[in-house]
Amino acid sequence: MCLAVPMQVLRVSDDRAIAMVDGVEREIGTALVPDVQPGEYVIVHAGFAIQKLSAQEAQETLSMLQLLSEEPLEPR
Questions:
Q1: 3-state DSSP call for residue 23?
Q2: CB 50 within 8 A of CB 33
Q3: Taking phi first (over 0 means left), then psi (-120 to 50 degrees means alpha), and beta for anything else, what does residue 59 get?
Q4: CA–CA dist 21, 34 (Å, integer)
Q5: How far apart, in whole angstroms, are the C-alpha atoms of residue 37 and residue 34?
Q6: CA torsion 50→56→58→62, rounded to 10°?
Q7: d(CA 28, CA 14)
Q8: What does the radius of gyration of the chain's CA atoms come to, in whole angstroms?
């Protein structure tokens, strides 16, 4: 299963950026979202920003992911 995660962009350089989620920084590709600026939130999938989103949307999604991580997973 693949997961796309909201991350906040910290720094941008050409078609790469440093983004952070939950205190963890990662280098990501920004070619699909070329106008992204530091401070903005993006959805990151497979190491690439694929879409911008608002801070509110990012927080709502991260809150849902946190809730899911607290639930025990059962095999089906």
A1: coil
A2: yes
A3: alpha
A4: 20
A5: 9
A6: -160
A7: 11
A8: 13
Give dist(CA 42, CA 4) in Å, integer: 10
Total residues belonging to the chain? 76
Looking at residue 28, its amino acid is I
pTM equals 0.87
Q: How far apart are CA 26 and CA 29, in angstroms?
A: 10
Q: What is the DSSP code (8-state) at residue 71?
A: S
Amino acid at 58: A
The token duo for 50 is 């694929």
Residue type, 20: M
Identity of residue 69: S
Reported as a single tens digit per residue, the pLDDT across 18-40 is 999 989 999 999 999 999 999 99
The Cα–Cα gap between 26 and 73 comes to: 27
